Amino acid sequence: MRTEAINRVKLVFSLLDANGNGVVDAEDFDLMAARVAEAVPASGEAAREALRDSFRRSWATLVAELDTDRDGRIDFDEYRACALSPERFGAAVTGFAEAIAAVGDPDGDGLVGRPEFTAVMLAIGFERANIDALFDALGPSDEDTVPVATWVEGIKDYYAPDKAGIPGDHLLTDTAA
Question: What's the CA gap between 29 and 18, in Å, rounded?
Answer without folding.
Answer: 8
